């Protein structure tokens, strides 16, 4: 990316047009995806339609006459739960489409009791420099991780969650990242061969 001189930085920001209209959907962006239905248009509910209880932070999920299976309610609840935990929308949508995906949550204090600076260092070891450690564990185990303060959320298949959790626990206990990477490499190679 070219450097912008300090005096021209403000002008460059004002000239940049909005690239994609967020309300337009995927048709105008030129990214048609075959097999997916068109994006539905919903009108916002008024306070009377919501029951007038806006102070409660809840999501209500209902079935309709077109609902084929009652399992979709649980999948919808899992989708909302994953999104609220901090996973990206596309990762949460994977819960709707694939049957063998799960979300596991645990806290750092469940692995080892840490306080103050020690807790901060453990969180830093989990994320790594610029998120490198987190990214490496995600790619090696085919999972998604969310580090939310002292809580860790893992989305993936059962075996992959177990491998990712073991790597995260080793980092929390103080193992150097290089040792965790080498162990992760051997375990993932064993999983891929079987």
TrEMBL record:
Gene Ontology molecular-function annotations: RNA binding
Superkingdom, natural source: Eukaryota
SUPFAM superfamilies per record: Eukaryotic type KH-domain (KH-domain type I)
InterPro entries: KH_dom_type_1_sf, KH_PNO1_2nd
Pfam families: KH_PNO1_2nd
Keyword Nucleus: yes
Alphabetized UniProt keyword annotations: Nucleus, RNA-binding
Record-annotated PNO1 second type I KH domain positions: 106-187
Region (Disordered) residue spans: 1-44
Compartments (UniProt record): Nucleus, Nucleolus
Gene Ontology CC, one term: nucleolus
Coiled coil: none
Predominant subcellular localization, coarse grouping: nucleus
Basic and acidic residues bias: start-end ranges: 1-10
Family that this chain belongs to: Belongs to the PNO1 family.
Protein name: KH domain-containing protein
């Amino acid at each position: 990316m070219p450097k912008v001189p300090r005096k021209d930085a403000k002008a460059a920001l004002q000239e940049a047009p909005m690239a994609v209209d967020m309300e337009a959907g995927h048709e105008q962006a030129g990214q048609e995806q075959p097999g997916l239905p068109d994006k539905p248009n919903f009108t916002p509910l008024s306070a009377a339609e919501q029951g007038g209880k806006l102070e409660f932070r809840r999501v209500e999920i209902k079935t309709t006459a077109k609902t084929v299976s009652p399992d979709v309610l649980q999948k919808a609840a899992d989708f909302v739960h994953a999104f609220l935990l901090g996973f990206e929308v596309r990762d949460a949508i994977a819960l709707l489409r694939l049957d063998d995906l799960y979300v596991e949550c645990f806290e750092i204090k469940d692995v080892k009791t840490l306080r103050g600076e020690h807790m901060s260092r453990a969180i830093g070891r989990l994320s790594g420099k610029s998120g490198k450690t987190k990214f490496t564990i995600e790619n090696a185990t085919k999972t998604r991780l969310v580090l939310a303060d002292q809580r860790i959320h893992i989305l993936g298949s059962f075996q992959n969650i177990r491998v990712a959790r073991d790597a995260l626990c080793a980092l929390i206990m103080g193992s150097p990242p290089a040792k965790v990477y080498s162990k992760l490499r051997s375990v993932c190679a064993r999983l891929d061969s079987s």
